[in-house]
Design goal:
- This protein has 10 helices and 6 strands, in the order H-H-H-H-H-H-H-H-E-E-E-E-H-E-E-H.
- It is mainly alpha-helical.
- The strands form 2 sheets. The chain has a 4-stranded antiparallel β-sheet, with helices on one face. It has a two-stranded antiparallel ribbon with strand order 5-6.
- A hairpin with a 4-residue loop joins strand 2 and strand 3 (314-316).
- Helix 7 (157-181) runs antiparallel to helix 8 (189-295).
């Protein structure tokens, strides 16, 4: 009877695979559920919107330059390009400055002035109109005009030469026969009939020639009509393609203009929220320290000019700093700010994830499961110490 034993290498591979899976899963969970600030969460989105605004600006410049260059068709090419570029840059500069001023008033000062708003509306509408008209012109550059080909007509020289030779032969035979049959300047009745037959043959040949020329003319007319119909079909096709492409370019131009405005809005909103988050960081730190000391039973703590009253759980601070010129505070910090349950919960979360550095005994908030030291210098010191001990 044959017995089989387990493959030890297979067992090791299975255990190693389980360890790798658990390690990767832990790292994935830490990355997925790691707390990130607002500025970190939307940094890539802000960069993407900035990139889209650059693309939208380039597209707007292209269509506007195409349209404005047609205003100076009668002048020199270099002067035409220079004038069109100057007009485009001036319009775009006014549009960007006015819209930026409107966004600044809306997000920073919470008030929009009339003149910048009116100027922004006029320039944006003018830019959209110029871009749309330029988008209508662009298809003529992308799709070539229909080429009219000349009809290949058959020549009548061959018919004329053929029948002319045949008629000439008949006339020569008739003349020769008359010359031979004349007697005293007269022809007999029998000879007159033969001469008459010759004349009828010549007349029949002339009729055949006319019929052949008529048929050739009709064939040439049909050829011309076919070429003309082909050209008209090609013109209609080119016109239809240009119209369809023009509609798509018009929609694209309007989309780019709207995308440019949305990019400005998102950028201002992102930086506004980042500034709010930065300002809240200082007040949260002060309130966190006061909550810690309140939980220890401290009745009144003096830290500089900051006082914490446990009876009312309010934080009173020194007089607020003087506002910087051209800026306003988004959230007015009251003289007494209530410590909310959210602040206490944030502090609990921080306590749960805080570690102590084994090298310098400094508490810190770790970012991952392998985050053991508070700084790189501590990690290097611990490594050197460990190497000396091994020696």
């Amino acid at each position: 009877m044959t017995t089989f034993s387990k493959n030890p290498h297979s067992e090791k591979r299975k255990k190693l695979n389980v360890q790798i899976f658990n390690f990767r899963l832990d790292k994935t969970l830490e990355e997925k559920f790691k707390h990130k600030r607002f500025s970190e969460r939307f940094a890539m989105a802000n960069a993407a919107f900035i990139g889209m605004s650059i693309i939208a600006q380039f597209a707007s410049l292209t269509t506007a330059f195409t349209m404005l260059s047609y205003l100076f068709v009668g002048i020199n090419l270099i002067a035409r390009v220079a004038c069109a570029a100057a007009l485009v840059l001036m319009i775009e500069a006014i549009k960007r400055e006015s819209t930026n001023d409107v966004m600044k008033g809306a997000f920073q000062y919470k008030e929009i002035e009339k003149f910048p708003a009116l100027l922004a509306v006029i320039t944006v509408c003018a830019s959209i109109y110029i871009s749309v008209e330029g988008a209508k012109i662009l298809p003529s550059f992308f799709i070539a005009d229909a080429v009219e080909t000349s009809a290949i007509l058959k020549s009548s020289d061959a018919i004329n030469s053929d029948f002319a030779a045949r008629i000439a032969d008949k006339e020569a035979e008739r003349n020769q026969y008359r010359k031979n049959r004349l007697w005293q300047g007269r022809l007999s009745s029998k000879d007159s009939k033969v001469i008459k037959e010759y004349n009828e043959d010549i007349k029949a040949l002339q009729g055949q020639k006319d019929e052949a020329l008529r048929a050739l003319n009709e064939a040439n007319q049909r050829t011309k009509a076919a070429v003309s119909a082909t050209y008209q079909t090609e013109v209609e096709r080119v016109t239809k393609e240009r119209q369809e492409l023009g509609k798509q370019l018009v929609i694209t131009a309007v989309t780019f203009e709207v995308l440019f405005l949305l990019s400005l809005c998102f950028s201002w909103w992102y930086h506004t929220e980042c500034r709010k988050e930065k300002e809240k960081g200082g007040t949260t730190e002060v309130s966190t320290q006061s909550v810690e000391k309140e939980q220890k039973g401290t009745t009144e703590v003096h830290r500089g000019t900051t006082e914490v009253h446990p009876e009312t759980t309010e934080v009173t601070g020194s007089p607020r700093q003087q506002k910087k010129p051209s800026f306003i505070d988004y959230e007015e910090v009251n003289e007494t700010t209530e410590v909310t349950e959210k602040t206490i919960e944030v502090e609990k979360v921080k306590k749960e994830f805080t570690r102590i550095c084994p090298a310098c005994a400094t508490p810190f908030v770790h970012n991952s499961a392998n985050h053991k030291y508070c700084s790189r210098s501590c990690m290097v010191k611990a490594r050197k110490k460990r190497l000396k001990e091994d020696k």
